[in-house]
Structures are given as structure tokens and as C-alpha cells.
Amino acid sequence: MYEISTRERALAMVAQGRSMNSVSKEIGISRAAIRSWQTRIEPLHRGTSCPRCQDQPALPDHPDTYAYLLGLYLGDGCISPLRGVYSLRIACADAWPGLIDACAEAIQTLRPDNKICRVQRQGCQYVTGYSKHWPCLFPQHGPGKKHERTIALEPWQQEIVTTHPWEFIRGLIHSDGCRITNWTEKVIAGELKRYTYPRYFFTNLSADITTLFTDTLDGVGVQWRRANWQNISVARKASVALMDLHVGPKY
User: Fold this and answer.
1) pTM of the model
2) Which domain holds residue 242?
3) How many structural domains is the chain composed of?
4) What tens digit of pLDDT does each residue of 37-72 get?
């Protein structure tokens, strides 16, 4: 292990145009070590501290952003160990470039000193952020699929969701929901007429995550119904208007 000052000196020399070979000989370290420092995931400095790792744990900065990212994570996210740190990966469909940008911005806001990348896959991008502290910030992390284990919010997370319910709802809709236009036909005065109306759906295999969603809807006065065992529908005009005001369609 090399001291941070040694690493910083080596990288500064390379940044000045020195070759890795000359830097390696002068400082007495391998070129492989220098290359690893150039591509390392965590920055050399300590970076943003984790509010949950303090002697007196605090709420994350930007709790509204946290509520949104929590919704994204519960819907389409996962946390995995990677070379001494953790990756938070959110799957975002290519059809919604604004959502991809919003996801990346939320991750960067919470961990501003850490690396964010976007990995293209067929039909989607994985927006990924690296940090040692993702399990601290998202204690729902665990082995196996989320719908096969208990998902419950910690009291401090529930406090954030209660204070910023719409951001949490928006994150869940952006990950596992949609706004669509339904239609129906009715016979009026002997004439068949077609009517269209907007509707929100949320679909998740986890009963716990679905309950978090519906409980939060209850808290903001949105009426919903269960279309089937895994689909939640919001179709009443006043409730759709509320959702349009605070959530809106994906973009």
C-alpha cells in the first residue's frame, strides 16, 4: 500500500506529460500501480462523508433527491460489491432519455465525489455509481431478488418519504410505472362513442414495495385500486390530476 501523497505525486507527474516509465523509475513504483490509480473508482481524497456512518447518524443531504433515488432503487436498482466498493446500478429504458439524465443527476448529487457511468445494453442504459456507502444509504440491500425477501424502510427513511412523498412516488413511477391513455366505448342515445382518459399504472412483484407505494399514495390523497395482484391503477380524474401535477409522464 502506498501513501496518498505518493499516489498524488505520481499522478501529477503523469498529468504533466511524463511517461509512466520515467515516473515509475523515479518514484520506485510499478507502472501497473500507476495505471490502477488512474482508473480507480474512488477518488484519492476522502470524498463526501457518509451521514449514516457518523457517531450520530444524520439524514442524507438533499433528502428530496434521496427520496427520488430510493424509489428508483426499489423499482429497478441493485447494489453489488466490486473491488472493495459497491456499485449502485439503475436500469433505465432508452425510450426515456430525460429519466436517464435525472437518475444520473440524483446519484451524483448524493455522492458528488464518486464516479458515475452509463453502460449501454439492448434497449436500456445501466446508470451506475460507485461508493463504499451505498449499503449504509440503502439498507434494503441484501442477497437475492427484492421480491423474494422482506423490504421495509428504516425509521429515518420513512421520515424522508413522509416529508418528500411525491419524490418517492415519482421515483417508483419512473422505475416501475407508466402513464398511459386508455379508451372505452359506450352507447349514448343509440350511438357508439369512444372515450379516452389518462391512467397511471405501477407494477412490482414485491408486495412490500407495492405497499410502500400505496401507503404513500394514501398519504397524499391519491385514490388507487388494485388491477390485479401485481398492478396498481390510478384512474380517477382528481387523482390523475394530482399525479400529473407532481409526477407526470416519463420523458
Assistant:
1) 0.79
2) 174-246
3) 2
4) 766 655 555 556 788 888 888 999 899 999 999 999
